[in-house]
Amino acid sequence: MNFHTRKWIKPEDLNPNETLFGGRLLEWIDEEAALYAIIQLENPRTVTKFMSEINFRSSAKKGDIIEIGLEVINFGRTSLTLACEVRNKMTREVIISIDKITMVSLDEAGNPYPHGKAEIEYVKDRLAK
Question: In whole numbers, what is the pLDDT of the chain averaged over residues?
Fold first, then answer.
């Protein structure tokens, strides 16, 4: 699992229990998955199709620093499936895990579009070509 993004939990991210609001965390995860998939598939028209069961395992509070990790599970013909884990940066305690997030590459008409990718690529390697 590669952890790319960190977030600092601020007062506006909290629920009435003074812990991280789950909806805010899911927003961050969805954005992180979209950015990752857009870069991997080289298509800005990439959208979230599916999220499997979301397992909230612990919470975060104001002042905590969390990190969002993603791992590629599968390249489909038009899709990319990721796993996600969010953990507390300081304690490494897992806050949430999602087994599958499926992102789909679309054409200009909004239809699934074959991306032609089969493995993880890094931008630095693309630039070297």
Answer: 95
Amino acid at residue number 95: I
Mean pLDDT of 32-44: 97
List pLDDT tens digits, range 49-61. Answer: 999 999 999 999 9
Which is nearest to 89 in space by CA: 4, 1, 6, 2? 6
What is the C-alpha to C-alpha distance for residues 24 and 8, in angstroms, rounded to an integer? 12
Phi first, then psi, for residue 67 (nearest 5°) are -130, 145
Count of structural domains within the chain: 1
Between β-strands 65-75 and 79-88, what pairing exists: parallel, antiparallel or unpaired?
antiparallel
Q: In the block, which residue shows the tokens 């960190």?
A: 6
pTM for this structure? 0.93
Domain that holds residue 93: 2-128
